[in-house]
Design goal:
Elements lengths: L12 E5 L1 H4 L10 H6 L1 H7 L3 E4 L3 E2 L11 E5 L6 H13 L3 E6 L9 H4 L8 E2 L14 E3 L5 E3 L14 H16 L4 E4 L38 H13 L6 E4 L6 H5 L9 E2 L2 H5 L4 H18 L4 E3 L8 H4 L3 H11 L5 E5 L20 H6 L36 H5 L5 H14 L9 E2 L6 E5 L4 E6 L11 E6 L13 E7 L8
Parallel strand pairs: 1-2, 1-13, 2-5, 5-9, 9-10, 10-11, 12-13
Antiparallel strand pairs: 3-4, 6-8, 7-8, 14-15, 15-16, 16-18, 17-18
Bound molecules: alpha-D-glucopyranose (GLC).
Length: 506
């Protein structure tokens, strides 16, 4: 066991596993915990510090598992609690921490409370208000006797009533349940939800769907002050366990200042910084987001997080317009101070699958709003044989992904897999890469150049012409081939060790 540093999360590289799509050990077409266990050597070799498992709990999978029917058990499709315990033990044995997803805003409609008609644990009203579901359509569904229940997501995901003490007690207990099983942290789903404005006031007049307002202004169902009381209840529980147990918030709020309120010694440890994920592939927009994020980190006294892809957004190889750009953006991300969250398959350079037949799409957002997140959830190609190591996977794997499979990339020194491995190896060798400060170097408008700790310079060219780096030194890593004269081509990033400095000085 290499574990032991309580602040491990501050500069950790955390790899998100979407269990349904990661690796299938029992051959039923759905990934499982044993599949993750079988790939721990792959993950150790990749060089990640932790894995975050998206939900694997008992669930009808109406929203890919973010509709939890039993928070204390594993869905049979994903395995058993014994498989989970074995996974944690093996991961820890390899020095990999395990973070699990916690879904407190809503449960599944198959949850025993909902099934037993315990309406006071949910948000039932005689009349709906004007709130809309994030997945499209009204946020209310009527039941047989005429009452309506609130679901900010799919109708199969009724919102819990956090004014009810039993709901609060239940989640404190769920935290302890998983902490007792050895988890190192939680990713808190919809961490800005749970508490709704008193009286459930209407949102009122607006142009376009409410979902589009979330980034700009406060709506009465998100980011209410009362949510912070919940985190102040949870933090002492996390702190009562040894070994640095952490929580990271998925909170979509209107400003860095609002986000900062979730973080601190009496609330959560981190929040996802989605602004980096939303930035355009241009030196100027990256720089603006990085400056803003670092200022925000300063504000809360905790390093920020960086994300380029996850299970909710199109993969960055597609979003940024190609693999070269994705690799370049990744090299930038992995050299920034703070922790980095990777999404399974990005290390293979997978694109989003854009041409899934509609009848195979499973995302409830597709059915309600016509937008689908299925394209980033296609199973991971492992082998170079037809099928990529899967039998009848829950979403079809494009035939050409045999060439992108882990097996096909294993021995290719220029593969994306080996780029990620090399970057993570260097990140470990330069302990200051995940921490420390950042100095901006003079550069043309479409070039981003930063010095990370004395000596390590990152240059990203988002322009249209090759640029000669203004730094003398050795190129430690490049996201793509350089010009014969050492210039950096468009859509390429490099890590340069300045002459006269050494990586081990840090
Ligand atoms: C979060 C998850 C997303 C899910 C939603 C409802 O945003 O990341 O996948 O659909 O919450 O739980």
């Amino acid at each position: 066991m290499l574990l032991g540093n309580d602040d491990w999360w501050r500069d950790a590289v955390v790899y998100q596993v979407y269990p349904r799509s990661f690796a299938d050990a029992d051959g039923d077409g759905t990934g499982d915990l044993q599949g993750v266990r079988d790939r721990l050597d792959y993950l150790a070799r990749l060089g990640v510090d932790a894995i975050w498992l998206s939900p694997f709990y008992t669930s009808p999978l109406a929203d890919g598992g973010y509709d939890v029917a039993d928070h204390r058990d594993v869905d049979p499709r994903f395995g058993t609690l014994a498989d989970f315990d074995a996974l944690v033990a093996d991961a820890h044995g390899k020095g990999i921490r395990v973070v699990v997803d916690l879904v407190p805003n809503h449960s599944s409609d198959q949850h025993p409370w909902f099934q037993a008609g315990l309406r006071d644990r949910y948000v039932f009203r005689d009349q709906p208000n004007d709130w809309e579901s994030i997945f499209g359509g009204p946020a209310w569904t009527q039941v047989e006797d005429g009452q309506w229940y609130l679901h900010l997501f799919a109708p199969e995901q009724p919102d819990l009533n956090w004014d009810h003490p039993e709901v609060r007690a239940e989640f404190r207990d769920i935290l302890r349940f998983w902490l007792d099983r050895g988890v190192d942290g939680f990713r808190v789903d919809v961490a800005h939800g749970m508490v709704k404005a008193a009286g459930l006031p209407d949102v009122g007049a607006k142009d376009g769907p409410q979902a589009e307002m979330l980034g700009d202004e406060q709506v009465p169902y998100f980011d209410q002050d009362g949510v912070h009381d919940i985190y102040r209840e949870w933090r002492p529980i996390l702190d009562s366990y040894p070994g640095g147990r952490m929580a990271v918030a998925e909170a979509w709020v209107s400003s860095p200042e609002r986000l900062a309120r979730y973080i601190g010694p009496d609330e959560l440890h981190q929040a996802f910084n989605f602004e980096f994920m939303m930035a355009d592939f241009h030196a100027k927009s990256f720089r603006a987001v990085i400056e803003k994020s670092l200022a925000e980190a300063e504000l809360v006294g905790a390093p920020t997080t960086w994300v380029l892809s996850n299970h909710d957004k199109p993969r960055h190889a597609t979003r940024h317009g190609g693999l070269a750009r994705a690799r370049a953006a990744t090299l930038l991300m992995l050299a920034l101070p703070g922790s980095a969250y990777l999404y399974n398959g990005e290390e293979l350079g997978l694109p989003d699958v854009l041409d899934l037949p509609d009848e195979l799409r499973q995302d409830p957002a597709f059915l309600r709003r016509g937008e689908s997140r299925d394209g980033c959830r296609v199973p991971i190609p492992w082998t170079a044989e037809p099928g990529c190591g899967w039998v009848d996977p829950w979403l079809p794997i494009p035939a050409e992904w045999t060439a992108l499979s882990a097996a096909a990339q294993e021995d290719d020194p220029d593969s994306t897999l080996n780029l990620y491995r090399a970057a993570l190896r260097l990140r470990r060798r330069h302990p200051a890469l995940g921490g420390g400060t950042l100095t901006w170097l003079d550069s043309p408008e479409d070039v981003l150049a930063v010095e990370r700790h004395p000596g390590l310079v990152v240059v990203l060219n988002t322009g249209e012409r090759p640029v000669r780096p203004d730094v003398a030194g050795e190129v430690l890593l490049a996201s793509g081939p350089l010009e014969a004269d050492g210039s950096i081509p468009p859509d390429t990033a490099v890590w340069i060790q300045r002459s006269g400095s050494s990586p081990d000085e840090s």
